[in-house]
Amino acid sequence: MTIEAVVDPRRDPVGQHVHKVGYANRVIKKRCKRRINKRSEAKVPMALQELYVSCREVFKGPGTVPLPHDVERLCHILDNMKPEDVGLSSKLQFFKTENAVKGTPRVTTTTIYKCDKFSLCIFFLPETAVIPLHNHPGMTVFSKLLLGTMHIKSYDWVSTSSAEESGQPSHLRLARLVTDSVFKAPCNTSVLYPTTGGNIHQFTAISPCAVLDVLGPPYSAEDGRDCSYYKDFPYDAFSDKDMGQPVLFMWPTETHKES
């Protein structure tokens, strides 16, 4: 079934939804460093190293999209990656459901690597935590759910606008629902493109989750790739007469300016 939606920009600092410090951040840095050093000394091939090397070869910089065989190459690597490849384990306290966060859950993130062509980062979502609908202007994004169960909802614009192509939020607009499903690790990698594949998406953690994101190129306000947040809602006055499906509208809520 195809569902459609529309949007209009407003502002919502990413700091309200994603925090770069906290328990999960310290754990990943500590564990990842120890495991990488140990494996390097043993000269054992590492999935994370393979991913890094492949990303350097695949991503050509702003304004480009990886070729289909390169997308398949990265998906193959990511599909086979395990939590241990980035220093994680389901035995960590963060991922135990009995340790549910009280109050409003905070999303934490750690960056493994970042350059002007791509970035590798991990998002940690406690149970019930949400990363609201947000876009990825001019970006190709690979999302690999390493641990946990997550609901993902995503949209694409029905038609592009010059404002959206420049990475800036536009007026109220129609968007088509691409994904509205629950994913449980281990599962295949999700891929979104600058204008297709669900470029605007939302994550909701059903259980504590860890998501490895590969973004090419990464967000950059200076280069016109800022992150905007959106609100979706039904609009009964409209209907898709060609497809006979309900219509949704999305209204931009805020734009994040990276520090």
Overall SS class: alpha+beta
The average pLDDT score comes to: 77
Strand content: 25-35%
H/E element order: EEHHHEEEEEHEEEEEE
Features:
259 residues; alpha+beta; 4 helices; 34% strand; globular; disordered N terminus
Provide a compact summary of the structure:
The protein is α+β, with helices and mostly antiparallel strands.
Topology:
Layout: E1 3-5, E2 18-19, H1 23-42, H2 47-58, H3 68-79, E3 107-114, E4 119-125, E5 130-134, E6 140-147, E7 149-157, H4 162-165, E8 173-184, E9 190-192, E10 200-205, E11 209-216, E12 227-234, E13 248-256
Parallel strand pairs: 2-3
Antiparallel strand pairs: 1-8, 3-4, 4-11, 5-10, 6-9, 6-11, 7-8, 7-10, 8-13, 12-13
Helix pairs in contact: 2-3
Provide structural commentary.
The protein is α+β, with helices and mostly antiparallel strands and 259 residues long. It contains 4 helices and 13 strands. The protein has helices spanning 23-42, 47-58, 68-79, 162-165, and strands spanning 3-5, 18-19, 107-114, 119-125, 130-134, 140-147, 149-157, 173-184, 190-192, 200-205, 209-216, 227-234, 248-256. The strands form 2 sheets. Strands 1, 5, 7, 8, 10, 12 and 13 form a 7-stranded antiparallel β-sheet that branches. The longest helix is centred in the first third of the chain and has 20 residues, at 23-42.
